[in-house]
Amino acid sequence: MQPLLTIQGPEAALFWFLAPLSVAAALGMLLVKKAVHSALLLAWVMITLAIFYIAQDAAFLGVVQVIVYTGAVMMLFLFILMLVGVDSSDSLTETITGLRPIAITAAVGLGGLLVSLLGRATLGREPIGLEIANSSGNVEGLAALLFSTYVFPFEVVSALLITAALGAMVLAHHQRTNPRPSQREQAINRFRSGSLAGAAGLPGPGVFARHNAVDVPALLPDGTPAPSSISATLKARGNVLDSGQFQLDNVDTTVVEEK
Amino acid sequence: MSLDNYLYLSAILFTIGAVGVVVRRNAIVVFMCVELMLNAANLTLVTFSRINGTLDGQVIAFFTMVVAACEVVVGLAIIVTIYRSRRSVSVDDASLLKQ
């Protein structure tokens, strides 16, 4: 096979430095458990690809890759991960028996096919390089093509973008199947429910002058703390204090005289 | 080093993405693997653009990026809709048609 345009010096060094890193990040994306880590590794792969684009005389695409992929697409992925729950880690156990060996065999087959095909194929001529095509600037050259030969696909793609935006709006729109209960209906339901204990609403937490008392239960008339006056979140965190220590007869109210 | 190495790298990344689509269960990770495959294809387009000395490959890679952006928007909206009704993003749980 004829060697293609040989690349010496900085670009080769850049390639041999970044290519293993990008393959390692892609493999890591496959193997890590948490989806957030996968997203960050994919962002790194995309950044290395952007560097490769710039090294290959495609400066515009390199910049677009950083802005669109690592900027917009990956942030959208992270946003959805936050929405769905960051802790939702993937169980790596296989649910279909024998799926993983088959998948790896098929992948080795596909990769081997692609690589061996690349190794055997020849273009029949020397690679040209982009010096002539980029002579008036990469962006200018792309713009000239985009607005002459590819102007119709360009318009179609703009229609596709608008359609996708509308589709996302329609999909994300959530319509209530039953109307939200009004305040009046909620009050009626409280009084008609089994007991009248909660009819007047839950008691507020204790308010003591010497403590910011959202985490202190209020005291009932007989002096016992009311557990229902504390937010369930605080209770779950274990942040509830004992209200007894803030009662007046337990607190030292003597003021130290300043000298 | 020849320009072929970029094509080999692209083939490897494409294969890794394909394995991820098949093996992973989290719909978002599956989707990210699809993005990796698209990116690998883009690297091929840019490399062939350089080999052929024309910018057409770069224009097509640009179109691929736009289509990928649309795909991400609609796909993630679908994932959010499924999550809202099923409280799960695992691709194994969406198997209502099977039963």
Q: What would you call the shape of chain A?
A: elongated
| Major sheet description of chain B | none
Helix/strand/pairing category of chain A: mainly alpha
**Envelope shape of chain B:** elongated
Any descriptors?
heterodimer, A: 259 residues, mainly alpha, 53% helix, 2% strand, elongated, B: 99 residues, Helix Hairpins, 78% helix, 0% strand
SSE layout:
The complex is a heterodimer of chains A (about 260) and B (about 100).
Chain A (H helix, E strand, L loop, with lengths): L9 H22 L3 H21 L3 H26 L14 H22 L17 H9 L4 H22 L10 H10 L25 E2 L5 E2 L5 H6 L22
Antiparallel strand pairs in A: 1-2
Helix pairs in contact in A: 1-2, 2-3
Chain B lengths: L3 H20 L3 H26 L3 H31 L13
Helix pairs in contact in B: 1-2, 2-3
Give an account of the 3D structure.
The complex is a heterodimer of chains A (259) and B (99). Chain A is built from eight helices and two strands. Chain A is an all-alpha fold. Chain A has a two-stranded antiparallel ribbon. Chain A is elongated, with a radius of gyration of 33 Å. The mean pLDDT of chain A is 84. Chain B has 99 residues and is mostly helical. Chain B has a single domain, classed as Orthogonal Bundle (Helix Hairpins), CATH 1.10.287.3510. Chain B is built from three helices and no strands. The longest helix of chain B is centred in the last third of the chain and has 31 residues. The interface between A and B is large, with 88 and 70 residues.
